[in-house]
């Protein structure tokens, strides 16, 4: 037995198990699901993962856990006083109405993000008052911490714990606000910013708006980061680094993006694309629909799923747009429509026989079913990734935030159609969009082609997460990977000083030549006069 063990110890690769902290504030399901998937991926590999969940919004706590395999989950509840204040206010209701009724652009984006800033700063203060949580985490002696840079409260927390090896993990394609501080470029002339409403082919005004909305949202988030930094320095001491330095000191930056799927852009070597990590096609393909769903899908030759996600609910959609959808639905009697609707009150649609309302839907199971013809979605990144990997034609109607960018990303592969939400009360425009994604075979063909490409891509997101995390845990941190561009001023970064000197030299040469010619002309004129 000893000989077998001795030999196997050389034959089987020895993995250094890590103690990993994944910091995941509970405020939106898509963010929690992404970070939860990272935690589960590392847990399945055998690492010791602690999943720390500071609750931001108590109403969303149940849907914002995110993990399925990881067992060491520490939930830090919101204080009772904050819960009671939340229940007595209609702020959440009001912001949902704002999201539906406004078009987020550079003129209002900073104001729209104010609610988020206030919630995150309050949550940071609530979380950092829990000294017992800090002491508990300190005993675990973490090797690596993984955090999302939508907040810097966690960065201050893990720095106070003494964790030097950190990994940033963006559940979005990227966050504009952090790029200058990690030294990564963003060219606004052809790369849509995180909250851009256009694609890569932009007019002059669209390029300007692309830059402006990025700037406005970055200002809002930087202000929030400053507030969080003030809080973590108050709790742990003024010696803690500035949030800008904490961002740049991260060893790896995971982004929920795929180079085949997303708009091409320049990235640092330490930025690792893991888009699609939440999509488990083996699991999706093994899922079975219940008999109730089979009955609904068998009623007509065509079926369409309608869902606007979990954050922005259909119940808050303006009535004129609901009626616009109903008019189109009634005009297509050979199509069954399944609408994920969060309320039992939908009397506005009484009498429509080809429409079914449901509070919950097994989205991936239905998307992967051949009987579903098309999907009407809000364009959340989670749903967008599911559409791309499953290969289903889609009509994307974004509501706010990064959904416009996601819609344009999906539409560029010609398996989906982008439609502005204000078009929902235009019967002709909306119906034409429905007809295209339901009956134009080119959309289905292009959607399947994209799914096939993603299925056979050379990079595996799960392997990337495991290998990079283990590499950081064993060899990190990597300050040598930080580009020096972070320390250059505007003149140095954009060669303005070099161009200035070059132009000055050219001007001096021109002046010199002009002076020489003037002198020569004067000399010859004087000589000519003397000769005469």
From TrEMBL:
Signal peptide start and end residues: 1-17
Keyword check for Glycosyltransferase: yes
One annotated GO molecular function: glucuronosyltransferase activity
Entry membrane topology: Single-pass membrane protein
GO cellular-component term (any): membrane
Gene3D superfamilies noted in UniProt: Glycogen Phosphorylase B
Xref: CDD domains: GT1_Gtf-like (cd03784)
Sorted UniProt keywords: Glycosyltransferase, Membrane, Signal, Transferase, Transmembrane, Transmembrane helix
Keyword hit for Glycosyltransferase: yes
Family recorded in the similarity comment: Belongs to the UDP-glycosyltransferase family.
Name listed for the protein in its UniProt record: glucuronosyltransferase
């Amino acid at each position: 037995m000893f000989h077998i063990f001795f030999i196997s110890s050389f034959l089987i690769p020895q993995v250094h198990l890590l103690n990993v902290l994944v910091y995941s504030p509970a405020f939106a399901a898509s963010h929690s699901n992404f970070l939860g998937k990272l935690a589960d991926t590392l847990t399945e590999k055998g690492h010791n993962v602690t999943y720390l969940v500071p609750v931001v919004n108590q109403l969303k706590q149940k849907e914002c856990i995110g993990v399925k395999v990881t067992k060491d989950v520490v939930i830090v509840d919101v204080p009772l006083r904050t819960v009671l204040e939340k229940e007595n206010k209609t702020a959440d209701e009001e912001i949902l109405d704002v999201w539906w009724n406004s078009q987020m652009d550079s003129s209002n984006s900073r104001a729209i993000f104010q609610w988020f800033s206030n919630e995150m700063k309050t949550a940071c203060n609530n979380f950092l008052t829990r000294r017992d949580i800090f002491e508990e985490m300190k005993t675990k002696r973490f090797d690596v911490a993984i955090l999302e840079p939508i907040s810097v409260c966690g960065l201050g927390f893990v720095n106070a714990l003494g964790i030097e090896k950190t990994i940033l993990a963006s559940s979005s394609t990227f966050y504009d606000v952090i790029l200058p501080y990690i030294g990564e470029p963003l060219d606004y002339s052809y790369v849509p910013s995180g909250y851009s409403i256009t694609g890569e082919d932009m007019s002059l005004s669209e390029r300007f708006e692309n830059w402006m909305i990025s700037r406005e949202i970055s200002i809002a988030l930087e202000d929030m980061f400053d507030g969080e930094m003030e809080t973590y320095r108050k709790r742990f001491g003024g010696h803690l680094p500035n949030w800008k330095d904490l961002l740049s000191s991260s060893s790896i930056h995971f982004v929920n993006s795929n180079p085949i799927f997303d708009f091409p852009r320049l990235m640092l070597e330490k930025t690792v694309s893991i888009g699609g990590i939440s999509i488990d096609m083996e699991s999706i393909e093994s899922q079975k629909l219940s008999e109730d769903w089979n009955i609904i899908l068998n009623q007509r030759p065509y079926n369409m799923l309608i869902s606007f996600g979990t954050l922005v609910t259909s119940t808050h959609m303006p009535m004129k747009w609901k009626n616009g959808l109903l008019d189109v639905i009634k005009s297509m009697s050979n199509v069954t429509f399944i609408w994920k609707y969060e309320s039992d009150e939908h009397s506005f649609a009484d009498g429509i026989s080809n429409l079914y309302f449901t509070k919950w839907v097994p989205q991936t199971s239905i998307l992967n079913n051949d009987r579903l013809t098309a999907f009407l979605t809000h364009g959340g990144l989670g749903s967008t990734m599911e559409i791309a990997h499953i290969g289903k034609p889609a009509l994307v109607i974004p509501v706010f935030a990064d959904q416009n960018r996601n819609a344009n990303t999906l539409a560029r592969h010609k398996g989906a159609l982008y439609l502005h939400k204000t078009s929902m009360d235009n019967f002709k425009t909306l119906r034409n969009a429905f007809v295209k994604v339901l009956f134009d075979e080119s959309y289905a063909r292009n959607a399947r082609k994209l799914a096939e490409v993603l299925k056979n891509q050379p990079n595996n997101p799960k392997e990337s997460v495991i290998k990079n995390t283990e590499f950081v845990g064993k060899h990190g941190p990597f300050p040598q990977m930080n580009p020096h561009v972070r320390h250059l001023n505007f003149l140095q970064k954009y060669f303005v000083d070099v161009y200035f000197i070059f132009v000055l030299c050219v001007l001096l040469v021109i002046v010199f030549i002009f002076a020489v010619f003037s002198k020569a002309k004067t000399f010859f004129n004087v000589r000519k006069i003397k000769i005469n």
